[in-house]
UniProtKB/TrEMBL annotation:
PTM-bearing positions, type N6-(pyridoxal phosphate)lysine: K226
Stated name of the protein: Histidinol-phosphate aminotransferase
Matching CDD domains: AAT_like
Biological source species: Campylobacter helveticus
UniProt xrefs under NCBIfam families: hisC
Gene Ontology molecular function, alphabetical: histidinol-phosphate transaminase activity; pyridoxal phosphate binding
GTP-binding found in the keyword field: no
Enzyme class of the recorded protein, top EC level: transferase
Length: 366
């Protein structure tokens, strides 16, 4: 059977390894997953109760207008409900934006290393990728590449903070940069981890209401998978000028987010205590990872997310990741990004302690 020739040049997204598979494969009783940036505190109890209370309605199609969740988000961010679209994860909104703006005659632009799905979706429609030589967001380099290829670049991605590296730009620098981008280029601000960045440093905070008012060619992305602990339910959203949202709606499949997911997301937004505890745990434990890196002479990028990335010179990240797997600890090897590095999700205190103990033994050759 023959398939679209584009598939010959398309990589498959590499998800985090499954706990049960690793436990069986390596014969480990307790597996700690520090690979997929899931919330180590689990899910808000309010969200769990919302799922239970609405489970009997699983046979019904969801409200396709998703008005309850959109209204909650509109209030939270100070925008109109017409400025919001809900997706099965924010990556579905990325897919919609790709089909709205890209084709085989044009291209997208991103920094050297960022979320893999930008390129995967773009290649599905035959679009070209432009990336900076710098792995992180260098606005001068991005602007130079954009100016050189502005006739073909129709989407520009800024992942703030950046996954899988953790670095983040200041809002003021982003605003200055956006002033030099043509209105026909859609600038996607992927803010999946922006709650973490805002908690650590308000200079990194991106205000979607201000963003879309001043720059009508921007699309702000958010998710319930990280801070709100709903990764398994797949709920994300996009905030943009109404014209952008209307275009995306023409591509959205009906009933794309389930009843239970929508109810859980509404409840999660209301549980401010859970979000606060999650942020506090993350950054108090992050300090332990930074100190561990210093004590073991490991390079890292100061992170504004719920993960940290370690870089290696003499040792091999694939070998190190495999040795951790044998100890029952799953991390994200970044060889697929052509980096000799690993990304570690910040876990619970006892999970992090176990990582430090096992990884220190590995680094010392024990």
């Amino acid at each position: 059977m023959r398939f679209n020739a584009i598939l010959n040049h398309l990589n498959t997204y590499e998800p985090g390894k499954d706990i049960e598979i690793i436990a069986k494969e390596y014969g480990v009783k307790e597996v700690i997953k520090l690979a997929s940036n899931e919330n180590p505190l689990g899910t808000s109890q309010k969200a769990v109760e919302a799922i239970i209370n609405n489970a009997s309605k699983a046979h019904l199609y969801p409200d396709d207008s998703m008005s309850e969740l959109r209204a909650k988000l509109a209030t939270k961010f100070g925008v109109r409900i017409q400025n919001i679209i809900i997706g099965a994860g924010s990556d579905q909104v990325i897919e919609l934006a790709t089909h709205a703006k890209l084709n085989s005659q044009n291209a997208f632009l991103q920094c050297g290393v960022s979320f893999a799905m930008y390129e995967i979706y773009a290649k599905q429609v035959g679009a070209k990728a432009y990336k900076t030589k710098s792995i992180m967001h260098d606005l001068a380099e991005l602007k130079s590449l954009y100016d050189k290829h502005k006739d073909t670049i129709k989407i520009l991605y800024l992942c703030l903070p950046n996954n899988p590296l953790g670095e983040c730009l200041n809002e003021s620098d982003v605003e200055e940069f956006l002033g030099g981008i043509d209105e026909d280029c859609l600038v996607v601000i992927d803010a999946a981890y922006n709650e973490f960045a805002s908690f650590k440093d308000m200079k990194k905070h991106i205000d979607p209401a201000k963003l879309i008012k001043n720059f009508t060619n921007t699309l702000y992305l958010g998710t319930f998978s990280k801070l709100y602990g709903l990764g398994g339910l797949r709920v994300g959203y996009g905030i943009a000028d109404e014209k952008v949202i209307n275009a995306l709606y023409k591509l959205r499949a009906p009933f794309n987010v389930s009843n239970l997911a929508l109810k859980a997301a509404v409840a999660a937004l209301e549980d401010k205590e859970f979000a606060k505890n999650s942020l506090e745990n993350n950054f108090s434990q992050m300090q332990r990872y930074e100190e561990f890196a210093r004590l073991n002479a490991l390079d890292f990028i100061p992170s504004y997310t719920n993960f940290i990335t370690y870089f290696f010179e003499e040792k091999n990240s694939s070998d190190l990741s495999e040795k951790l797997l044998k100890k029952g600890i799953i991390v994200r090897n970044l060889r697929s990004y052509r980096l000799n590095a690993m990304r570690i999700t910040i876990g619970k205190p006892y999970e992090n302690t176990r990582f430090f103990e096992e990884f220190e033994r590995i680094l010392r050759g024990n």
